[in-house]
Amino acid sequence: MAKLVLSLNGSVLNQYFIDKPCLNIGRDADNDIIISDPLLSRLHARIVSVGEDHIVEDLQSSNGTLINGSALGRKILQHRDVIGLGSHSLCYLNTRMAGEVDLERTMLIQALPLAGGVAEAGTGDAVPAMRAGRTWLPVGCVTVLAGSGAHAVGDSVRLERVVTTFGIPGEQLVVIGRRPQGYFLTHVEGAKLPRVNRRAISTEPYALHDGDEVEAAGYRLEFRLEPLAGHD
C-alpha cells in the first residue's frame, strides 16, 4: 500500500497510508493529514486515488504547494516524489510504481482541469494524439445513444487521442484511454460507477470490446472499433 512520510527539517514526524479515496491536507482538525504549520491554509491540498494511481493537487492555498521543488497545480505521484507544504514535506512511497513508465497516466492528468479552474460542463475533452506508431490498433469511436451535454444524441466521437474525457469535472467524470492493448474505460470521480452492458464496473480500468454499451457521466454510449483499411 502506498504511504506518505511527513518530515520537518529532515526528521520524520509521522506516516500515513493512502487507504481512502481522498485525503485532505491542512491545518484544520477535520483534515485527514493535519499539519500545524502557519504557512499552510486550513484546507491546503489533497490526494485523490484514481485506480491504482494517486493524484496530488493544491487547493488554491495561500502559500502554494511544491512538488520536488517546483510549483504544484496537479500531478500524478511517482515513487519518492516530495510534496513541499510550508516548512514540512511529505514523501510519497509506492514501491509498486518504482521504475514504471506509463504514458497514459501523464496524458490523463493533462486532460483534467486544475482545482478551481474553469471547465465547461458536459464536455468530452481530449489531449493531443500520440505520434503514429507501428501498432495497427483500430480506431475506436462512441455513438451517443442518450444523454445531454456537449454531445447530442446521434453524435459520433472518434477516439483518436490518448485520453478522451466525458462528464462534468467535480461531479461525474470518466476517461476512455487508448493503449497498445486496446481501449480502456476508467472511472475518475463521482459517486456513481460507470456501467458496461448494464453491469457496474470497478474503479480499475475496464477493457472495452466492440459493441459494448457504456452508461457513464450522464451518457449512454455505444463503443465500436472501426475496420482497419488495407489490413487483414
Protein architecture, described:
- With 232 residues, the protein is mainly beta.
- The protein has one helix at 103-111, and strands at residues 3-8, 11-17, 22-26, 33-34, 45-50, 53-58, 66-67, 70-71, 74-76, 82-85, 88-93, 140-147, 156-159, 163-168, 172-179, 182-189, 195-196, 199-200, 206-207, 213-216, 219-225.
- The strands form 4 sheets. Strands 2-1-11-10-7-8 form a 6-stranded antiparallel β-sheet, with no helix packed on it. A 6-stranded antiparallel β-sheet has the order 13-12-21-20-17-18, with no helix packed on it. Strands 4-3-5-6-9 form a 5-stranded mixed β-sheet.
- Strand 5 and strand 6 form a beta hairpin.
- Residues 98-104 and 116-135 have low confidence and may be disordered.
The helix/strand series, from N terminus to C terminus, equals: EEEEEEEEEEEHEEEEEEEEEE
Strand content of the residues, in percent? Answer: 35-45%
Oligomer: single chain
What is the 3D shape?
elongated
Give a count of the beta strands, DSSP E runs of length 2 or more.
21
Assign the structural class, choosing from mainly alpha, mainly beta, alpha/beta, alpha+beta, or little secondary structure.
mainly beta
For the biggest sheet, the summary is: 6 strands, antiparallel
**Which blocks of ≥5 consecutive residues have pLDDT under 50?**
98-104, 116-135
Rg over CA atoms, rounded to whole Å, is 19 Å
Our count of helices gives 1
Termini gap: 44 Å
